[in-house]
Amino acid sequence: AQRVTQPEKLLSVFKGAPVELKCNYSYSGSPELFWYVQYSRQRLQLLLRHISRESIKGFTADLNKGETSFHLKKPFAQEEDSAMYYCALSRMDSSYKLIFGSGTRLLVRP
Amino acid sequence: GAGVSQSPSNKVTEKGKDVELRCDPISGHTALYWYRQSLGQGLEFLIYFQGNSAPDKSGLPSDRFSAERTGGSVSTLTIQRTQQEDSAVYLCASSPQGSYGYTFGSGTRLTVV
């Protein structure tokens, strides 16, 4: 069965510190992985997807198939990065259905 | 519309009553998804509609839950005989065919008392 695990419910860092939000997945095939973000009082929105290999708002994520991980990283956290972050996996079938982790709340302190 | 619209934004209902939650997707988006977001849990997939194909109902937690999508547009999620464990935020998302480009609605917060 496919599963996405985000082991940290809350991650608190100071402004300017590096950030790593952990995501591990279980899936026997080749998944596609995503990070979604939900800022306070805003809708859930796509942050980045691994296939794009892009950096959005300074965040990057690398798919490590050996460790089945897709951790989200940013070298210098900003206060506006405070939000709820969800890792998600797709089976790359025709449904485009996403399986989400339980989320990590990132709090960036001044 | 400009975005995915969900109504009502908040719903408080008594245990045992039926509720209907509505989702109005972005015009032209053929795929529509319902998810449930419970406190401390992730987003739990409920049901998926794609065009005229049979819906994927594999995530519905019990037969008290059902959903329909009329005319390939508006969708209604119905929960019969609500229970306290049904309390959650119900999110709807739509996307163009063959795309992971989900656009989420703002959700309906359901509280069963």
Q: What value does the average pLDDT of chain B take?
A: 92
Largest interface comes to: A-B, 23 and 24 residues
Which runs of chain B of at least 5 residues are low in confidence (pLDDT < 50)? Answer: none
Envelope shape of chain B: globular
Main sheet overview of chain A: 6 strands, mixed
Description of the structure:
- The complex is a heterodimer of chains A (110) and B (113).
- Chain A is globular.
- Helices cover 0% and strands 44% of the residues of chain A.
- Chain A is an all-beta fold and 110 residues long.
- Chain B is globular.
- With 113 residues, chain B is mostly beta strands.
- At the A-B interface, β6, β9 and β10 of A face β4 and β5 of B.
In a few lines, what is going on in this structure?
The complex is a heterodimer of chains A (110) and B (113). Chain A is an all-beta fold and 110 residues long.
List keywords for this structure.
A: 110 residues; mainly beta; globular; B: 113 residues; six-stranded mixed beta sheet
What is the secondary structure topology, with strand pairs?
The complex is a heterodimer of chains A (110) and B (113).
Chain A: E1 3-5, E2 10-14, E3 19-21, E4 24-26, E5 32-38, E6 45-49, E7 60-61, E8 72-74, E9 83-90, E10 98-100, E11 104-109
Parallel strand pairs in A: 2-11
Antiparallel strand pairs in A: 1-4, 3-8, 5-6, 5-9, 7-8, 9-10, 9-11
Chain B: E1 5-7, E2 10-13, E3 19-24, E4 31-37, E5 43-50, E6 65-69, E7 75-79, E8 88-95, E9 103-104, E10 108-112
Parallel strand pairs in B: 2-10
Antiparallel strand pairs in B: 1-3, 3-7, 4-5, 4-8, 6-7, 8-9, 8-10
